[in-house]
UniProtKB/TrEMBL annotation:
<dbReference type="Pfam" id="PF08327">
    <property type="entry name" value="AHSA1"/>
</dbReference>
<feature type="domain" description="Activator of Hsp90 ATPase homologue 1/2-like C-terminal">
    <location>
        <begin position="23"/>
        <end position="160"/>
    </location>
</feature>
<protein>
    <submittedName>
        <fullName>ATPase</fullName>
    </submittedName>
</protein>
<feature type="domain" description="Activator of Hsp90 ATPase homologue 1/2-like C-terminal">
    <location>
        <begin position="190"/>
        <end position="323"/>
    </location>
</feature>
<dbReference type="InterPro" id="IPR023393">
    <property type="entry name" value="START-like_dom_sf"/>
</dbReference>
<dbReference type="InterPro" id="IPR013538">
    <property type="entry name" value="ASHA1/2-like_C"/>
</dbReference>
<comment type="similarity">
    <text>Belongs to the AHA1 family.</text>
</comment>
Length: 326
């Protein structure tokens, strides 16, 4: 993980994050000052950022929002105070409303990002200064340390490029905390086609099968927010196992990049999950990132122990074959 340290200083009213990256400072400057690259990592898992304006000049402003799995938007603004590319920049970071007006009821802070060369790449030091100890305590209680750390941990794949980050690694499962898991898989194919393969029944039935010998026999897709879906699998002749299914509701649909659904095993009282599907394309390949939120650590561990990752890899391998034939 690139983040090496996060500290707070109640006397200096600061929060300081340090991270190391195998890239030159010029590359770090580029990703932090290009809104299309910045929004690929700035929001923590489950709360991706969208920059709607970005005036990279002293006195200029940037506006962005983070979208929760339920579709709620949390708005913020940057005012650029100092620019010294590619070494550093300073912004006034404020919470805002949907029109970009600063929310005076929440803390405004001064954030300075400094990029320094190292023997293996570069070091990022982010120092955020607050106006009071109460303001510092407030943002820490809101999860700023955890959110910023997870956001910075996503920067590596942007710096590397998707192929270097994920190609040849198959389906990867990462435990983020007691209730959250991130699953990634690079698929050869454009994002629009990968989106279709996740939302068109005739394509889903060709690849979302799990282990060999199983079939997706019922496939009702949720095509809009609030709609219900239902999938049912059954084993073929000579294959061990019992028919089972999942159902749920679409909470957020943003084609072709994001879909959030609930998931529950049909006919059981097992706790459900929240599944946050994100697609990202680069150089003709699409990275599938699935964030799963479990109700508790016990449920998380039970599900992971079922061989879920291996079953998903079998399906994703089929998906590449399906896309090549479309």
């Amino acid at each position: 993980m690139p983040v090496t340290e996060v500290t707070t200083d109640a006397e200096a009213l600061t929060m300081t994050l340090t991270a190391e990256f195998p890239a030159p400072i010029e590359r770090l400057w580029e990703v932090f000052t290009d809104p299309r690259q910045l929004e690929r990592f700035w929001g923590p898992p489950g709360y991706p950022a969208t920059f709607t304006s970005f005036d990279l000049t002293v006195g200029g402003r940037a506006r962005y929002h983070m979208t929760s799995p339920q579709g709620e938007k949390y708005h913020a603004t940057w005012e650029f105070l100092e620019l010294d590319g590619p070494r550093s920049f300073t912004v006034l970071d404020s919470f805002a409303d949907e029109d970009g007006k600063v929310n005076e009821e929440l803390p405004t802070s001064r954030m300075t990002l400094v990029f320094e060369p190292t023997a293996t790449g570069s070091r990022l030091e982010s120092v955020t200064r607050f106006t009071s100890a109460e303001a510092l305590e407030q943002v820490v209680a809101m999860g700023m340390i955890e959110g910023t750390t997870m956001a910075m941990d996503q920067l590596g794949r942007v710096l590397e490029g998707l192929r270097a980050y994920a190609q040849g690694k198959g389906t990867q499962t990462e435990i983020l905390d007691d209730t959250h898991v991130r699953i990634t898989r690079l698929i050869e194919g454009p994002i629009d086609l990968v989106w279709r393969a996740h939302h068109e029944p005739e394509l889903l039935k060709k690849w979302m099968l799990g282990p060999d010998g199983w079939s997706l026999v019922e496939c009702e897709v949720a095509s809009e927010v609030g709609a219900k879906y239902r999938y049912v699998w059954e084993p073929g002749e000579g294959v061990e196992g019992e028919r089972f299914g999942f159902d749920g509701e679409a909470l957020l649909i943003e084609p072709p990049r994001r879909a959030v659904t609930t998931e529950h095993m049909t006919g059981t009282d097992y706790p459900g999950t929240l599944n946050d599907l994100n697609l990202e394309e680069e150089d003709g390949a699409t990275l599938i990132t699935l964030f799963i939120e479990y109700p508790d650590k016990e449920t998380r561990d039970i599900v992971l122990a079922t061989g879920m990752t291996e079953g998903m890899e079998s399906s994703y391998a089929r998906l590449e074959g399906v896309l090549a034939a479309v």
